[in-house]
Design a protein that fits this description.
The complex is a heterodimer of chains A (about 280) and B (about 450). Chain A is of the alpha/beta class and about 280 residues long. Chain A has 2 domains: about 80 residues, Beta Barrel (Elongation Factor Tu (Ef-tu), domain 3), CATH 2.40.30; about 120 residues, Nucleotide-binding domain of ferredoxin-NADP reductase (FNR) module (Rossmann fold). Chain A is built from 10 helices and 14 strands. A 7-stranded mixed sheet of chain A has the order 9-8-7-6-10-11-14, with helices on both faces. In chain A, helix 6 packs parallel to helix 7 and helix 7 packs antiparallel against helix 9. The radius of gyration of chain A is 18 Å and the shape is globular. With about 450 residues, chain B is α/β, with parallel strands linked by helices. Chain B is about 35% helix and about 15% strand. Chain B has 17 helices and 16 strands. The longest helix of chain B has 20 residues. Classes of the chains: A alpha/beta (about 280), B alpha/beta (about 450). Chains A and B meet through helix 1, helix 2, strand 5, strand 12 and helix 9 of A and strand 5 and helix 12 of B.
Chain lengths: ~280, ~450
Amino acid sequence: MLTPTICRMKVHAPRLAAAALPGQFLIVRATENGERIPLTISDYDKESGTVTIVTQQIGASSSEIISFEAGESFADVVGPLGIPSDFTEMTEDELKGKRYIFIAGGVGTAPVYPQVKWLHDRGVAVDVIVGAKTKDLVIYKEEVEAVCDNLYLCTDDGSAGFKGLVTAMLEKLVTEDGKKYDQAVAIGPMIMMKFATLTCKKLELPVIVSLNTLMVDGTGMCGACRVTVAGKTRFACVEGPEFNGYDVDFDEAMRRQGMYKTEEVEANENHKCRIGRGK
Amino acid sequence: MANKIPRVPVREQDPKVRATNFEEVCYGYNVEEAQLEATRCLHCKNPRCVAACPVSVKIPNFIAQVAAGNFAAAAAVIAEDSSLPAICGRVCPQETQCEGSCILGVKGEPVAIGKLERFVADWSRENGGVKPEVAPANGHKIAVIGSGPAGLACASDLAKLGYEVTIFEALHRPGGVLEYGIPEFRLPKDKVVAAEIESVKALGVKIETNVIAGRTVTIDSLLDEEGFAAVFVGSGAGLPKFMGIPGENFNGVFSANEFLTRNNLMKAYRDDYMTPIHAGKKVVVVGGGNVAMDAARTALRLGAETTIVYRRTETELPARREEVHHAKEEGIQFAMLTNPVEIIGDEKGWVKAVKCIRMELGEPDESGRRSPVAVPGSEFEIETETVIMSLGTSPNPLIARTTAGLETNRRGCLVADENGATTRPGVFAGGDAVTGAATVILAMGAGRKAAAAIHEYVQNR
């Protein structure tokens, strides 16, 4: 357990581990009667054939997942799904001299890690802003710190790092500290990605976001994950999950994300949003 | 001599009762009914029914065995050509294939070939099944992408020829559209689909679930690294189409694929499964195909007052007549010559109505069907909580995008010749991935043809 409600686990899935790249996700079904739940891949090891996933307890299905003990098995694990991050397609020359800033909120820090590691391993300069509600809810700090140039921590209550929002930190870095970035990547709760995108727009900084929409099959079949991007309907599972943040209709995406929420779950989800906003 | 009695009717669940459950609508023939119906066959010298069957089941031969009470022998006759008879007997459009060409149908009712096939398959399953002959292993490995009807038919034929066949399935249960698309009340999952898949596995076919071709593995890695001699792609037509009208992304608008997948594959209708489904009190289904009927009848069973909206008239409905008939019996309303122009949402972004326009039939188009034309100023609203778009699907581009040398046509379908050979040597394809959305039996036919072509390709390599 990374926190009382956030759990990290390594899953043995050799074919998946061999094929996984940064930016991709997988789908698990905890039990025979369970839902198919999309989760981001937060690490993969081709040699041991394992992938790492991080799950936050939100509703019944995530509770089922985090209740697993080491050695138990999911009913199903499938992936990798989605298109890998753009930079995995770039040549060394294209990446050379580029400066990346990642904005990670809450559990969104976990999928940021393999991306930062990938870039860092290729000599790309990467800074990371990590936001959480409070010190105890910060995850992956050491891991990310080990593979980035600078890590800026923000918490709601100021119990660790900067007291305030990740967006305020981003603005401070660029406008006050004179940091220059070529590309931002924001991963976290939808509301955080929306505001991170607005801040990036203000700073004229291109931003990629990773959309954690509702999904059923995750292979393009159902269309539950559809989002409006640049005025067009796109399927996050096969055409994403990463999109240009400027083009995403976040309000629609947030509304669609809440389609099956019961009031109880909604309370939990709101709780999660505040973590992401670091407010 | 053939018995000149009327077609033996088949027993069905009462429409009022079945509208509230997911149990199978049709009970099928019992032994007496099947034997009696079998006596109606004329045993034509040139049986047109066989020619009209995409997999060429020797129909008069199996019917003769039924009439004689040799049900195991009847099952063996069918098994020579079809690996999924209990499925085909239930979901084939017989009225346009075997039964549609039955000579008895010219003046009266054709022989109930579908119901007889179903009877034989069900009897056989309950009495130990058929053990088809399998040739000795020939040492060649074949990969099949997708465990739907095309893949299962292809895999069966190749396994019988002695190939070591592995099917890779993206979802967690094998069966493709048989599992996620066609509802329980038309095609029982455990009793029929799982059992027929078991009979394919009994031929030695391996099925690996949770493997996505183009992501978990690629066609290239299967051919180059995993030692498969050839690959058959039967990945189906995955991506749902939407209309492109305003409001389509409001909460409460679903593709038929999503609605049916939640209910069938994920068993959302059952309390002991966790996947949710939203139907509400009123549902509008847009479209007129078999999938639209399935979605509407599913919504009805979930407790919704359901209306099917279709832009042409009832005559043009592409769904099987039996499905339309069943839907009407169950109380589905049909709004023909009606086309949605906008979906209206409430302040919270949930669907509250569909704005439609009245249509009339104009001049015939290239397909020969009279094309619907909107009547200006005839817009009206239908109040609803849920809208299900059943407008067909287009193929998933994943395999074409991740495989060099695999051409697609302008609709995104894989290009393959009549034997299933694609533009890449060693890669064959069939079913909806090639034709776009079609039927179970056409996919099976394509799978069988491709199996023969793969056999020839491997033997001549």
